[in-house]
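Example 3.2
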Amino acid sequence: PRQWVRNLNSPAMMRTRDRAERADRGRGAAGGGAGAAGEGADRQRIAIHAHTAQAPAKPPFQVVMLDLDDFKIVNDTFGHKVGDKMLREMARIIQTQLREYDFLARYAGDEFVAIMPMASSSMAQSVGERMRSAVESQKFSVRLGTVVQVGISMGIACFPEQGDTTEELLTAAARKMQSDKHSRKTVISLASMPVSNLDALR
């Protein structure tokens, strides 16, 4: 595989870490956004943790991409304030299913990325299913007397089998996530679930 991990103490990586940390502090000072690492947790943060996970003598690691199904419906129906609150709560729920040294970031919109160092594919799949179950069982209050439930679609990419750069891993995970979303959409439509559950509207 190509060498893509730079020395974590190199000037370039130190500058990258500094920029990411300043961005996080800035988001916190502005009130912060939804999600584990703040609104718009960017690829610099994800890349740093991916680099760390692939330090010498470490086994393969997993990149897990998650997307909240039908979040746009919630946002459009109940407003951005409710949407942001839901994202923060979902990030908290997802985080509870991860190990202490795993990393979770808000990637974009209603997407999250988790980095799982020293994890096998089967372990990542098991954790992912626990995250899915935890999210889908959550009843989220959007207004007095009204609750909604949403599902998540998931894609997992393993280093180095599915990529040896950050972009390759994110792309592989995103493709699997979209495939998961499509297959789950088909199953749900055939099941004719009641439309009162937002998960049925995907």
